[in-house]
């Protein structure tokens, strides 16, 4: 008879799940959309600066873009959000 050893699971390396910034970017987009903070969180520096400039030029009216993006972020599934905005780097809507 062969000595079968049960598989040890306590010391096997766990796969690291990449950080999903969906909730953080969504909430910041809704609350501070006019400042473009949600863009900076996702790594879109150029788009974040554009959002700030547009908000200043339009006296805050361009903040509706951040508000809409925040809602879009929160309504997407976690995987869809991650693939679209963190892997695919889609900067607008």
From TrEMBL:
Domain of life of the source: Bacteria
Record's GO cellular component terms: membrane
InterPro entries listed in its UniProt record: TM2 (IPR007829)
Signal peptide limits: none
UniProt keywords, alphabetically: Membrane, Transmembrane, Transmembrane helix
Topological category with respect to the lipid bilayer: Multi-pass membrane protein
Protein location: Membrane
Transmembrane portions of the chain: 23-42, 49-74
Record-linked Pfam families: TM2
Major site of localization recorded for this protein: membrane
Annotated ranges, domain TM2: 19-71
Full protein name: TM2 domain-containing protein
